[in-house]
Amino acid sequence: MHASAPAPSLVPDESARLQLLQSIATVMGASAPVREALEQVLEEMRRTLPILRGSITLISPATGEIRIEASCGLKDAERLRGRYARGEGVTGRVIQTGQAMCIPDAAEEPLFLNRTGSRDLEHEAIAFLCVPILLAGQAVGALAVDRQPADAATLGADMNLLRIIATLLGHAAFEGQRFMDDRSSAAPTLADRFHTSSPAMRHVLEQMEHVAHAGTTVFLQGESGTGKEVAARAIHAASPRAAGPFISLNCAALPENLIESEMFGHERGAFTGANSLRKGRFELAHGGTLFLDEVGELSLPVQAKLLRVLQERCFERLGGTQTLHVDVRIIAATNRNLERMVEDGSFRRDLFYRLNVFPIRLPALRERRDDILPLASRFALRFARANGREDARLSSAVMDMLQRHDWPGNVRELENVMERAVLLLGTEDIILPQHLPLSLHGEYRAAQESLPEQCCLLPAHAATLPQRIAELERSCIAEALAASNGHMGKAAQALGLTERIMGLRMRKYGLRYQSYRHRKTNA
């Protein structure tokens, strides 16, 4: 537990409280767009109440996904990461059950996922308060705030105020759901979720389409970073269980003495520290899908108990005697060779056959090179917009470098490379080789040196040679202007050009030195 001084209640004095509620009612009665109105409500709350962060999550009518639609105290990139399935995390649980939750210390609550990555739970003490937004008795979303920890009476008073505010948001939240997805009433297909032109990936999508509508156990295989959890979520969303919870468990992330409690739950007093009843992932996934990631990391004793649940669809919590029956679809995944593990005795043969009902192998990124550039462009654009930029394009040299890399970390590595590149961009919206990690430069140089001197490497999706030269020239001039703080003379000298030629080139490419004078000097 984090030690902290007593914190003030969210609840202000009576007049301030009434003024806040009146302000929120006024915002809700105005004709502003729904999302803008919800943002205004959170800003009104932050001006009056001592909250650190706030968010309003809504349920997508098309996919059933829960995502943050309005926030305060969150960066755009953090808000975009706020996505949950029903029953997943505190937010997903509140929406699934329609019951508010008050977490006095977020760092001590396993259900608290910190999906946005906005809190440093090792150094920051946070109480998390989340209430459902209800309309006609149905949850359409949730209102949540972060605040400093406080005593039970203070947190209880805070929860009462949040419930009142959530009641005022019901109709606006319901209206906001209409704008969360495309106006088409059809739910997105698996092909819509995976933008791919690769034959290998198309074959995977066909398999996923076939199995999605059945209750069959699915076994996803593939290297780390190939998108096994993304595939599991897509199968769940396309299945008849889409309205049910999607619960995931990383079997490699927990020590052996905790994994059994996470799977099956425990009764109060089952072991030291078990101060209350806790439901396990199987119980939470009832009526939906349970995704067991890195299932090859389970110990033999836990494998035996998992086998029984798969066979009988029943279990007992740790320390309990009541047999619980569950209706759960299992999707398992691993990057290990389970067949080899079966032969050497580290994985049960009977469990392997239970899991390996419908195997799907996700290809490595190097096996679907046609997808590298479309994926890179999508990631670059997404991170650019999350960081307040209009666009981010790949230069031809970068396209070439990306296609020649073997991507041992697969799609996850590509995503990380694009996020880093966007953060390093200058005033121009074009990603250049210097924005990529050194590991990609070494491979590119080796490829260049292996060719005859008169040859040059052209990327598969390159423009014409004059277009590539013009792109490179414009980028070099823009970088020189940025480095010289818009000083044309210094930029021209750095490039080995006369100021006259520099001026002509700038006019050709529509560059203005004033745009690069972003640093003010002190007099």
UniProtKB/TrEMBL annotation:
Domain of life: Bacteria
Sigma-54 factor interaction domain: residues covered: 194-423
GO biological process: regulation of DNA-templated transcription
Keywords, comma-separated and alphabetical: ATP-binding, DNA-binding, Nucleotide-binding, Transcription, Transcription regulation
Residues making up the signal peptide according to the UniProt record: none
Xref: Pfam families: AAA_lid_14 (PF25601), GAF (PF01590), HTH_8 (PF02954), Sigma54_activat (PF00158)
Any GO molecular function: ATP binding
PANTHER family to which the protein is assigned, alphabetical: PTS-DEPENDENT DIHYDROXYACETONE KINASE OPERON REGULATORY PROTEIN-RELATED (PTHR32071:SF117), TRANSCRIPTIONAL REGULATORY PROTEIN (PTHR32071)
The name this protein goes by in its record: Sigma 54-interacting transcriptional regulator
